[in-house]
Amino acid sequence: MELADRMKKIPPYLFVELDRLKAEKQKQGVDVIDLGVGDPDLPTPEPIIETAKKALENPANHKYPSNRGLLSFRKACADYMKRRFGLNFSPETEITALIGSKEGIAHFPLAFVNPGDVVLCPEPAYPVYHLGAILCDAEPYYLPLKWENDFFPELSKIPAEVLQKAKILWLNYPNNPTGAVATKGFFKEVVEFAKKNDIIVAHDAAYVELYFNENEPPLSIFEIDGAKDVAIEFHSLSKTFCMTGWRIAFAVGKEELISALAKVKSNIDSGAFNAVQEAGAYALNNLEELVPPLRKVFKERRDFMIKALKELGYEFLEPEATFYLWVKTPNGLSSQEFCKKVIEECGIVVTPGNGFGPSGEGYFRIALTVDVSRLKEAVDRLATLKF
Ligand SMILES: Cc1ncc(COP(=O)(O)O)c(C=O)c1O
């Protein structure tokens, strides 16, 4: 059987060799510390689980969900957007539930992108932006995110002929893997750029609640005047409430964008489980009580790791959000060389930066998804590394 051409365009999985080394170490009985996966180790807060348990017993929830999700869930999303960002969105027309934001991110281009069109994709990045483009036979055009530009893309450098064919610009702030947070100035530039070039801005805000500076929480792109004309934003409950396995998220934006995404979805999936939506609505309605304790745990880990890595001489920008540290590899090692060495000599898994795109070369990513005592153990082991 011959795979479709688009499948052949999907780049090879770069972590094969590291996965093999990890499995080998575990087989040898090494106590491997995994700082690779971006999946929170903390359990979902108990009241969310209790809400889901009750919702499970309601037979109305055993039926097919509605296409855009329960109105009660969408109202909770709209209330959250209002409380958190001061923004008004109609739960009826401007919000749709998603089965995790990955699902929405992968499907959204199908609504607006034709074969041969261009999708502007930052790199290093979460891979679904460019994979979604490839799966609808479009051309990803990569926008390097560099340390010297605060990990913002240089929009003015995109050639005119690329802009003519570009339909969507993907952005993700707070950013995985770099930890960068968008400024109002940058988002303003983005909105102007999108209007001028007639491009949709698709902003992935999966980490918008995982921040450490209470005085300056990360922005929604809709806080910029005029953004609603050009943008759609993807929000996820996965990282915010440690609910990655539940698969619940939402997209928000003007009706034209949301109804197009909902139309694609109505022909592919049958919506998120209603009981999960009820739990999600509870979570969003109680975010101000539920999330600060989780944030506190990640901040403790981040503060510990920042101090310890600095003492070991590692170079990185201190992240104000996300549970990632994006660190330069020491001694001029490539990302792969360093990550292999760290597994082999310390039994620690970290993610090679080049796995997120070529501009990630020379970096590695640490996910703060283990507790401080494990981080301490990891630091003690890193201290023994010899170059
Ligand atoms: C930047 C970014 N966006 C989106 C997602 C997907 O999250 P979910 O599908 O769980 O909502 C992830 C998951 O790792 C991510 O890192």
Query: What is the spatial order of strands in the main beta sheet?
Result: 2-8-7-6-5-3-4
Percentage of residues in DSSP E strands: 5-15%
Cofactors, ions and other ligands in the entry: pyridoxal-5'-phosphate
The level of helicity is 40-55%
Radius of gyration: 21 Å
Give the arrangement of secondary structure elements.
Blueprint: H1 5-8, H2 16-27, E1 33-34, H3 46-56, H4 71-85, E2 95-98, H5 101-112, E3 118-123, H6 128-135, E4 139-144, H7 160-165, E5 166-172, H8 184-197, E6 200-204, H9 227-230, E7 231-236, E8 249-253, H10 255-266, H11 274-285, H12 287-311, E9 324-328, H13 335-346, E10 348-349, E11 351-352, E12 363-367, H14 372-382
Parallel strand pairs: 1-10, 3-4, 3-5, 5-6, 6-7
Antiparallel strand pairs: 2-8, 7-8, 9-12, 11-12
The protein binds pyridoxal-5'-phosphate.
Q: Can you put this structure into words, describing what you see?
A:
- There is one protein chain.
- By secondary structure, this protein is of the alpha/beta class.
- The protein has two domains: 5-43 and 292-382, Alpha-Beta Complex (Aspartate Aminotransferase, domain 1), CATH 3.90.1150; 46-288, 3-Layer(aba) Sandwich (Aspartate Aminotransferase, domain 2).
- It is 41% helix and 14% strand.
- It has 14 helices and twelve strands.
- It has helices at 5-8, 16-27, 46-56, 71-85, 101-112, 128-135, 160-165, 184-197, 227-230, 255-266, 274-285, 287-311, 335-346, 372-382, and strands at 33-34, 95-98, 118-123, 139-144, 166-172, 200-204, 231-236, 249-253, 324-328, 348-349, 351-352, 363-367.
- The strands form three sheets. A seven-stranded mixed β-sheet has the order 2-8-7-6-5-3-4, with helices on both faces. The chain has a three-stranded antiparallel β-sheet with strand order 9-12-11.
- Helix 8 links the parallel strand 5 and strand 6.
- Helix 2 (16-27) runs parallel beside helix 13 (335-346), helix 5 crosses helix 10 and helix 12 (287-311) runs parallel beside helix 14.
- The longest helix has 25 residues, at 287-311.
- 48% of the residues are buried.
- The structure holds pyridoxal-5'-phosphate.
- The site of pyridoxal-5'-phosphate has 13 residues, from helix 5.
- Pyridoxal-5'-phosphate binds at residues 38, 100-102, 126, 172, 176, 204, 206, 236, 238, 244, 249.
